[in-house]
Amino acid sequence: MSPTRVLTLTTGILSLTKSDDELAVVVGHELAHAVAGHSREDHLSGKHDKLLLLPWLPAVLPGQALARLAACIDPIFHLPAFVLTSPARAIVYWKLRKSRVQEREADYMGLMLMCEAGYDPAAAITHWVEMDARAQEHFSKLQAKYGRGNVLPVNEWNLTHPHPSTRIAEIQTLIPKVRAMVDHGKHLQQEGRPEIPELAYFSEEAGGRGQGDGAAAAWDHWRSC
Length: 225
Known about the structure:
The chain is mainly α. Helix content is 75%, strand content 0%. It has nine helices and no strands. The longest helix is centred in the middle third of the chain and has 39 residues, at 78-116. The radius of gyration is 21 Å and the shape is globular. Its cofactor is Zn(2+).
């Protein structure tokens, strides 16, 4: 989802969706980013992040040079390398963590959106199992080409998105909650209460996990519709 709220589906992602339910997983996830205002959050925080990072950039290159010396000549250079690069690394890791939080938030909201639209949220498991298999296949090909010692797994804290296996485990626990929330919301609507409570529950749940910003914005947006 672009900052202008234009949703683009590539032929690559379409080739990975084997049913309308799996396509709803992708569309629901991207719509959730828009409803939660993640692009706006990124735009506002990006300026502050650059200001935080800018003073530490001059120390990064010397720090990396010392890290190479530590690897090739003497481990004693590890300490100054760590001191020079750790502030910038901390800021980058914080940004990466925030991105992963937004992805988890969109996964949760996307499941609710697709479930309420009548699609099966269990398709999210099928989708991410396929994505995980593709990632493992690509990783195995790289190891075969360049050698196992030269191609190592990337830790999740270095990624902008949670690992597919992490998403699968989390989605498995979310599906029963999502179905219950949507059913409860439909029951309230039948009783003549027009408000949909799912995002209120989500805001509380997300807030407990440290993910409340986008959820709260989504709830406000939904109430204003």
